[in-house]
Amino acid sequence: MPVPAGNPITPQKAILGKLLFWEEQMSSDNRVACGTCHRAAQGGGDPRPAINPGLDGISPSGDDIMASAGTIHSDVNNRYVPVARFGLNPQVTSRTTPSSVNAAWFPAMFWDGRATGQFINPETGLVSLATGGALESQAISPIVSGVEMGHDSRNWPEVTAKLAGVVPLALATALPPDLVAALAGGQRYPALFQLAFGSPEITAERIAFAIATYERTLVPDQTPWDQFQRGNTAAMTAQQIRGMNVFNGPGRCNLCHGTSLFSDGLFHNIGLRPIVEDNGRQGVTGNAADRGKFKVPSLRNVGLRNRFMHMGAFNNLGQVVTFYVGGGGPNLDNKDPLIVPLAQQVPPPDGADLVEFLTNGLTDARARNRQFPFDRPNLASEGPAANGFPFGGGSAGTGNRVPTMLASQPANIGNVDYKIGLNNARGGALVAFVLATARAPIGEQFNGVNINVDLHNSPTILSMLVAGAPGAVGSGYATVKLPLPNDPAYRGVVLTSQWFVFDQGVPAGLASTAGAEIRFF
Fold first, then answer.
1. What does 339-364 look like in DSSP terms, one character per residue?
2. Which of 322, 276, 265, 132 lies closest to 208 in space, CA to CA?
């Protein structure tokens, strides 16, 4: 295990890193953790289907990318603002999520290698690790990304102050035993940083050091192939052994996926995409010789993944093998000469053996079954309330567009980032956001407009003008920020909410969203 001298592995640091890796509260919307997109049971990747429409902004089309959903775009003040391609839907990354498992052995991280072994403290600008810190460099990037876990220009003081005040893993359930033990005394993050680093200060560097340490514990070295190499000749089936021989022989897979890491750690262009769509490594080095090149991933646990290649072009290993047997992609500019047609060398039966070897011969059952060290808690964003608690129906405004409520954030007490948004309203209209203690009677209306919240018992009403081109159909949007008090008395309280749009484009002069419950916990 390569470990930088400035960040030695300790049990206290590893358990802190595990807590942080699965901490949805580290995001600006409390819905995205590192582990949201990196799950060992899915080969270190993301099982959630999400499409980035690519350069043309159209889906489906040939440049679609299967990648990972992050946050709904928000501005520097963490208020919802629509963005090209995604509007006010969750943004999707521009490349498929690479695996976090086995990552410790790579000298550079991300598909293009932009996270290098030199780790620079983002708060001081000083070099913390001269070499070997690629994991640390990678760990901090998504947390402040306006696409993945943050909002525009999110800064580290905001992140660290938030962590200092939250209850660790307050949103998670079914915690593994080691995390239960770590939190048994009601420990908060300052105390956990004290145990790991000797003082309670929460810093970006320490967050990176802890997460990287945890990731260095994720070593899937108990595959059938590993046991076979250690002398257990019964560990792999006859078909897997045949597939291994194809891998190392006529299939030529080992030319790029050699060594026990099953990767050469280098960058290759396999002709998959036109370089104009993504120039890969060249975007980091500026070297034309690197155009269209991407890092060769490890194949350990590849059988657990449901997306393959940097754009998620394939959804099963049979498609991957067919791609390589056919000579790779059609884009010849700077295509690696190692990628050649292999139809004569690898007939279909051999291809099936190769798929079996990759699927099961290289899979560590502990990762597939979420067993230590690959165990994890369940995330709130995986649950049935991931999109809030809507009820009732809205009423259409201009252009027959029904305004929509953005109420997906968890209402955990102490959530300093809690907010509710409005989308699809008449641009520039006056709107009212209503909080009430109960739902309205079923079927209640005003001038034919649906009323979902009880307006008769001292509701709280906030009014504002929505953003968007004045009068434009569906261009209006707004945000109400409601930092939730860190008071246990609120736990179990349920409020109802609804937006009303004063819309001059409809006879009633009013449009409304569906209702949404705010359930404090």
1. ----TTTS-HHHHHHHHHIIIIIT--
2. 132
Q: Where in the chain is the domain with CATH 1.10.760.10?
A: 11-220, 224-363
Alpha helices in 357-463 (DSSP H): 365-368
Q: For residue 70, what are the contacts with CB-CB under 8 A and spacing of at least 6? A: 32, 90, 91, 92, 93, 145, 147, 148, 149
**CA-to-CA distance for 65 and 147, rounded, in angstroms?**
15
Express each pLDDT in 350-400 by its tens digit: 999 999 999 999 999 999 999 999 999 999 999 877 778 999 999 999 999
Q: Cβ(11)–Cβ(195) under 8 Å? A: no
**What fold characterizes domain 224-363?**
Cytochrome Bc1 Complex; Chain D, domain 2 (1.10.760)
* Residues 418 and 484 sit within 8 Å (Cβ to Cβ): yes
Considering the domain 11-220, what is its CATH architecture?
Orthogonal Bundle (1.10)
SS3 476: strand
- Token digits of residue 329: 């992609």
What are 141-167's pLDDT values in tens digits?
999 999 999 999 999 999 999 999 999
* Torsion angle defined by CA atoms of residues 159, 6, 138 and 122, in that order, rounded to the nearest 10 degrees: 40
Fold exhibited by the domain 384-519: Immunoglobulin-like (2.60.40)
* pTM confidence score: 0.96
Q: Are strands 494-502 and 515-519 parallel, antiparallel or unpaired?
A: antiparallel
Instruction: In whole angstroms, give the CA distance from residue 196 to residue 16.
Output: 7
pLDDT in tens, 267-319: 999 999 999 999 999 999 999 999 999 999 999 999 999 999 999 999 999 99
Among candidate residues 375, 358, 372, the one with its CA nearest the CA of residue 301: 358
Which residues on adjacent β-strands are paired with residue 430?
Answer: 465, 502
> What distance in Å separates the CA atoms of residue 252 and residue 343, rounded to the nearest whole number?
12
**Do 451 and 210 contact (CB within 8 A), yes or no?**
no
Q: Residue 134: CA atoms inside 13 Å, Cβ hemisphere, count?
A: 21
Q: Report helix, strand or coil for 440.
A: coil
Q: For residue 146, what are its two tokens?
A: 């306006």
Average of pLDDT values for 228-246? 98
